[in-house]
Design a protein that fits this description.
By secondary structure, the protein is α/β, with parallel strands linked by helices. The chain has 8 helices and 12 strands. Strands 1, 2, 3, 5, 6, 7, 9, 10, 11 and 12 form a 10-stranded mixed β-sheet that branches. Helix 6 links the parallel strand 10 and strand 11. Helix 4 crosses helix 8. The longest helix has 20 residues. It is globular, with a radius of gyration of 18 Å. The two termini are 28 Å apart.
């Protein structure tokens, strides 16, 4: 197994937020690619409910999170982070084709899949009163970005989605492209295409720097775990192939992958899923992970009252860990 090195995340003075990546020889920055003046960095955020954003907030309790994390300029998260533009699309379990259940940046009737970019702020989860990891990630990277050339987040989350869903949910929630490409080809692919077109229409040249993934709970089953990595890699490879022209230097393998370990206390098999994720990072160049667990070096995120979704401080810290992994691996360069 390849060496796995620790990346210490220093975004908040008193926290040690750890992101870990396979050293694979390139540390995510091996390409000779040199951006032209119009190129902007694009990140794909996808997966299931904790990526979609099912964590509720109020102004009061989010401000308390900022106090706990010694963040003094948290108001920007309510006002909007102009340096990071986000287009988001998310829906509940098995409801992806029911428009009334979709929460998206483009609220025009019949056009939600077309996307729309907005300043990154609160309310980009599964409702106007919810957030996902996009907020913490945008907060961390914003000072490294010129507002005139923003970073773009394309976020598409499907609650309850996995790689081996029951027939009753079928392609509506299944990322297993070797079985059925419906979820990918009907949602993630066209949504990404539309969003890239919006960036181009704004006069920029979009370059997809990384594929950020948060999923695994639906596959934490002894019968599914042995196939998890191959199914994930098939999805990633299809995405990279379809969007190779937007990769750095138009080399698809230069699109990094940042995976998140999932919460381990819901059931014992989640530990096995995380072990598989670590193996997958170790066997790939340009794959990295953020450690949400209580393992050594992990950031020990905790669940909210439903025991399925991160509490408010944890979802913000998860986003911060993604953001720091972007910075630590030079993915804005």
């Amino acid at each position: 197994m390849k060496n796995v090195k620790k990346l210490m995340l220093m975004s908040v003075a008193f926290l040690s937020l750890a992101a870990t990546g396979c050293n694979g020889g390139n540390n995510g920055n091996s390409s000779s690619y040199e951006p032209d003046t119009n190129e902007v960095s694009v990140f794909i955020l996808t997966g299931q409910s904790n990526m979609e954003g099912n964590t509720r907030f109020t102004e009061t309790n989010l401000n308390q999170v900022f106090t706990d994390l010694e963040i003094e300029d948290g108001q920007v998260c309510f006002d909007g982070i102009k340096e990071v533009q986000t287009s988001f699309y998310g829906c509940g379990y098995g409801q992806i084709y029911t428009e009334s259940n979709v929460h998206a940046s483009n609220t025009e009737a019949g056009h939600k899949i077309d996307g729309k970019f907005l300043d990154t702020k609160t309310g980009m989860g599964n409702s106007d009163s919810s957030i996902g990891p996009e907020l913490g990630a945008a907060y961390v990277i914003r000072e490294q970005v010129d507002e005139e050339k923003p970073v773009f987040f394309i976020k598409c989350g499907v609650s309850g989605s996995g790689f081996d869903q029951k027939d009753s949910q079928g392609p509506k929630c299944d990322w297993n492209v070797e079985k059925d490409e419906s979820l990918y080809s009907n949602i993630l692919k066209p949504y990404t295409q539309n969003c890239l077109g919006l960036i181009e229409d704004a006069g920029f040249t979009p370059v997809i720097k990384a594929f950020l993934w948060n999923q695994g709970e639906s596959d934490a089953d002894e019968k599914k775990i042995p196939y998890y990595n191959d199914r994930f890699d098939a999805l990633v490879d299809l995405f990279k192939t379809d969007f190779e022209e937007y990769a750095p230097d138009q080399e698809k393998d230069d699109i990094a992958v940042i995976d998140a370990l999932i919460y381990e206390k819901n059931k014992p098999t989640t530990i096995s899923i995380n072990d598989e994720k670590l193996k997958n990072v170790a066997r790939h160049d340009n794959y990295y992970y953020v450690d949400a667990t209580e393992r050594e070096g992990g950031i020990a995120l905790t669940m909210g009252g439903d025991n399925l979704h991160y509490d408010l401080k944890s979802i913000f810290r998860l986003g911060m860990a993604y953001g720091q992994a972007i910075l630590d691996n030079n993915l804005l360069d």
